[in-house]
Fold:
Amino acid sequence: MTTGGWITLLLSVGFVVTLFVWCLYRVLLCAPEPEQLHGIEDIDTKDTNAE
Structure:
């Protein structure tokens, strides 16, 4: 394989591996705090309002 082929191969594989590691880091270590979840009684569907 030529030198240009090796450079292209290494850049491509390096980019994919770096992106994969970054995604794993973001998902596993930088997970946001869970949001305040509401119960079913907090949901207003507006179909039970008396008019």
